[in-house]
Prior knowledge:
By secondary structure, this protein is α/β, with parallel strands linked by helices. It is built from ten helices and twelve strands. α2 links the parallel β1 and β2 (61-66).
Amino acid sequence: xxxxxxxxxxxxxxxxxxxxxxxxxxxxxxxxxxxxxxxxxxxxxxxxxxxxxxxxxxxxxxxxxxxxxxxxxxxxxxxxxxxxxxxxxxxxxxxxxxxxxxxxxxxxxxxxxxxxxxxxxxxxxxxxxxxxxxxxxxxxxxxxxxxxxxxxxxxxxxxxxxxxxxxxxxxxxxxxxxxxxxxxxxxxxxxxxxxxxxxxxxxxxxxxxxxxxxxxxxxxxxxxxxxxxxxxxxxxxxxxxxxxxxxxxxxxxxxxxxxxxxxxxxxxxxxxxxxxxxxxxx
Length: 282
């Protein structure tokens, strides 16, 4: 009798709870390569982790590819990487595909983040509500004067649909509503940041680590995004950032060491330096 995908998902959950070791690509006692793929939000953390990690394990070649959470999870399920970086959890259809291929995705939450709605620094608007942001992205609000700003058309910037940040924004803001046809889609957080920072009428959204003096993060429902409000969950668009592996990594393996690096003082320093929020602190 064939195991249904729902039963397989139950096995995945049991694996997470019991710490079942997995057999991810290239995992073993003499690992020499580590392939990481996925989120552009988690990408800066993964890059810095890789740099620090190579000093501890000079014989390991580490590749970090940043094309989006969906791409990373697909690569993990297809066996093309050992670690997928993601700014969201798996979708039901991804769990189903993983179960069909005998893959057991295990999540390692390494940091906290906030989906920050950003505008050009010259924009006088300081905060919005979730409903008003939905009104903008659904095309019902088209001019900044409707939001207390200047008489200027709103240029709407969104991440592409394969992005975990896009999925989070859709969950927090859009719900079942669809985005307007005039929305401009970009492939990464840096592109969204660049588009907003160079366009006076633009609005976009990025991870906390991409907020700087070139863009202004708006208060959402009266709460500004910050380490404190994201860590407490007070900021309404707070979310965890993940590394995913196929099964719980074998103890002592390079994959396990990399996925545990966020617990070290150096790992937490990197997370903070990149503008994100550690899940714990020493």
